[in-house]
Specification:
This protein has about 250 residues and is mainly alpha-helical. The protein contains 11 helices and 2 strands. Strand 1 and strand 2 form a beta hairpin. Belongs to the NCF2/NOXA1 family.
């Protein structure tokens, strides 16, 4: 499909997501015949919002197939695997997400169109959540303790609450990219979809100027004709007077 068609459908899907019209968003996304990793991430996010876990996993599989180094793809899939109780796959995704963070404490995906910062402590938190579901409480506590040493917004409160939950042998819920936060097409590309007037607006003042010029020419011509007629009549009157005087 044409790239401009992809951008159009992608933008319409994102607008539907902003309105929380998930089904309409999915309808638009299903019309895209050639997805990239970012549009497939939007598809996965839509399935998650609709509670379609298996379809979300399939979409995230395609995200990672299209970009095998996308850390946030592994992070998101780890959470969805936990929702499907696929714990081994979830733990493997946490390991891959941590690897592709490349020892960075945070990755800001804003430049790629996703208004989300993913912190390494969040990846560790999900790993701890997997171990809590496996009832490996000591391992979960160990990972959470390591996560508490990481940098990042919102870390302290959430890690503290998680450690208390682990001490009570409570299973942790996985972290996901917030609902509604998806990859968006670049504004410059969306702006190109708008019709543009290459001729520009009509110059009304110019029309009036031309009209005024034409009108002035008519007035001048009319005055010249009147002047000639007056001169002729005056000359004719003098000739007639002269003839009468002679005779």
């Amino acid at each position: 499909m044409l790239y401009i068609e992809l951008i159009k459908l992608w933008d319409e899907a994102v607008r539907a997501i902003d309105s929380r019209d998930w089904q309409s968003a999915l309808t638009k996304l299903n019309q895209i015949t050639e997805h990239n990793c970012r549009t497939m991430f939007v598809v996965a996010s839509t399935h998650i919002a609709l509670g379609q876990v298996d379809l979300a996993i399939e979409a995230l599989d395609q995200v990672i197939a299209k970009d095998s180094c996308l850390a946030v793809g592994f992070f998101q899939r780890s959470a969805v695997h936990m929702m499907a109780n696929r714990l081994e796959e979830a733990l493997a995704d946490c390991i891959w997400a941590q690897k592709f963070m490349r020892e960075n404490p945070v990755i800001d995906y804003k430049q790629l169109g996703l208004r989300y910062k993913m912190y390494s402590w969040q990846v560790l938190y999900n790993a701890a959540a997997v171990h809590s579901r496996l009832q490996q409480w000591d391992k979960a506590r160990e990972i959470l303790t390591a996560a508490s040493q990481e940098r990042g917004a919102g870390r302290s409160n959430l890690i503290g609450i998680a450690l208390e939950a682990i001490s009570r042998r409570e299973v942790l819920e996985p972290l996901l990219v917030p609902e509604g936060e998806v990859f968006r097409p670049r504004k410059q590309e969306v702006d190109q979809l708008k019709p543009r007037d290459f001729l520009g607006e009509a110059k009304v003042t110019r029309i009036f100027t031309l009209y005024s010029c034409f009108k002035s020419c008519l007035e001048i011509n009319y005055k010249m004709q009147n002047s000639i007629i007056v001169q002729y009549m005056t000359f004719k009157h003098k000739i007639m007077s002269l003839c009468l005087f002679v005779f």
